[in-house]
């Protein structure tokens, strides 16, 4: 069975501290839903080499055992509470995608 992934790209973060409330709720919600954070850059000391557009935006990649599990985690009550904690006017490009077997 193909894995499922959450891919989040944050085009601009003017104040990273504003994400604190969201991060405190989202982390446990993701773990409870079976998610594993594979990468969160450029925070946590991760390295980035940007090509083409040259953007070094924050990118978060989370793996789940299946696409269905990834969708269920997003729709969970715990994660929906985390979404409410995202700051007003915050921009994020979020996708749930299928992995390749």
Structural overview:
- The mean pLDDT is 88.
- The chain is α+β, with helices and mostly antiparallel strands.
- It is 30% helix and 26% strand.
- It contains three helices and four strands.
- InterPro entries: Dimeric_a/b-barrel, DUF1330.
Question: Quick one: overall form?
Answer: globular
CATH architecture descriptor text: 2-Layer Sandwich
How many extended strands? 4
**Uncertain residue ranges:** none
Total number of helical segments?
A: 3
The domain count comes to: 1
Find the CATH topology. Alpha-Beta Plaits
**What is the makeup of the main sheet?**
4 strands, antiparallel
Strand order of the largest sheet: 2-3-1-4
Strand proportion: 25-35%
Provide the CATH top-level class.
Answer: Alpha Beta
Radius of gyration: 14 Å
> Distance between the terminal alpha carbons, to the nearest Å?
6 Å
Strand/helix succession: EHEEHHE
Report the average pLDDT across residues: 88
Protein structure class: alpha+beta
Protein name: DUF1330 domain-containing protein
InterPro entries: Dimeric_a/b-barrel, DUF1330
Domain DUF1330: 3-99
Pfam family, one: DUF1330
């Amino acid at each position: 069975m193909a894995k499922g992934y959450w891919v989040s790209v944050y085009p601009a973060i003017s104040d990273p501290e504003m994400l604190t409330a969201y991060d405190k709720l989202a982390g446990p919600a993701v773990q409870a839903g079976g998610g594993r954070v594979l990468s969160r850059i450029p925070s946590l000391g991760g390295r980035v080499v940007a090509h083409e557009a040259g953007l070094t935006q924050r990118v978060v990649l989370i793996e789940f055992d299946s696409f269905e599990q990834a969708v269920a985690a997003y729709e969970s009550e715990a994660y929906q509470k985390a979404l409410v904690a995202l700051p007003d006017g915050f921009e994020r490009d979020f996708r749930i995608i299928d992995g390749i077997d």
